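Before the break, one more example. Copy the sequence into your notebook; we will annotate it together after we see the structure.
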Amino acid sequence: VQLQASGGGLVQAGGSLRLSCTASGHPFNRSMMRWFRQPPEKERQWVAAISGTGFTDYADSVKGRFTISRDNRKNTMYLQMNNLKPEDTAVYYCRMTEDSGKVYWGKGTLVTVSS
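Here is what the structure looks like once it is written out:
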C-alpha cells in the first residue's frame, strides 16, 4: 500500500487549503482513513477520520473549520481546511487502516499559516 498526500503550502490566516491523499495497492473503500498533523516541536496529533461508509469525526480544535471527505472511485481522501489559523501550521499525514487492522502512513505535506 502506498499513500501520497499533497496540497500543502503557505497561506495567510483566514485562508483555505485542500489536502488530498491518494491510496494504491489495497481496496480503498473498506479502509478507515484519518488525517494527523505534527506541529513544529510537538507530538503528532489526530485531526479527522472518515470510515468507508462516510462516517466522520473531528478533533475539537478543527470542528467547524475542517471537512474530511473521500471519493472511493478515485481512491482519494480529502481535507478541506477553512479559516486557517497559525496554530494549524504542521506537517499533515494521512493514515489508512485496513479491515485487517494493519496501518499504513503516507509521507506528510507541510501546511504553513502566516499571521
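The chain has a mean pLDDT of 95. The first strand starts at residue 2 and ends at 6. Try to locate both features in your own notes.
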